């Protein structure tokens, strides 16, 4: 399997995940206040939205890489 085919498969998979889920979220932990050995931790939930045009473009580019390989 060459690198072009692998990149095409990864782009199609990532594009499909972006179309299905529309984004992802993660939790970031920061230290709010620290007084000596006592620390107050704050967890913030961050959300990242993936635009539909980016997901669709990834699918199209991945299919293009898979369909039109160089000889």
Structure description:
- This protein is of the alpha+beta class and 71 residues long.
- The chain has one domain.
- α1 runs antiparallel to α2.
- The two termini are 13 Å apart.
- 10% of the residues are buried.
- Strands 1-2 form a two-stranded antiparallel ribbon.
- The protein has two helices and two strands.
Strand-helix topology:
Elements: H1 3-21, E1 23-35, E2 38-49, H2 52-67
Antiparallel strand pairs: 1-2
Helix pairs in contact: 1-2
What would you say about this model in short?
Helices cover 49% and strands 35% of the residues.
What are the salient characteristics of this protein?
single chain, about 70 residues, alpha+beta, two-stranded antiparallel sheet, about 50% helix, elongated
The residue ranges in which pLDDT falls below 50 over 5 or more consecutive positions are none
Strand arrangement across the biggest beta sheet: 1-2
Structural class: alpha+beta
Supply the number of structural domains.
Answer: 1
How would you describe the shape?
elongated
Proportion in β-strands: 35-45%
- What would the average pLDDT be, to the nearest integer? 89
Main sheet summary: 2 strands, antiparallel
Helical amount: 40-55%
Distance between the termini: 13 Å
Q: How many helix segments? A: 2
Number of strands: 2
Q: What is the H-and-E element order?
A: HEEH
């Amino acid at each position: 399997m060459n690198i072009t085919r692998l990149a095409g498969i990864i782009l199609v998979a990532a594009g499909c995940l972006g179309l299905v889920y529309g984004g992802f979220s993660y939790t970031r932990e920061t230290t709010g206040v620290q007084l000596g050995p006592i620390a107050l931790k704050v967890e913030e939930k961050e959300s990242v939205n993936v635009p539909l045009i980016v997901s669709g473009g990834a699918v199209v580019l991945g299919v293009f890489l898979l369909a039109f390989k160089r000889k």
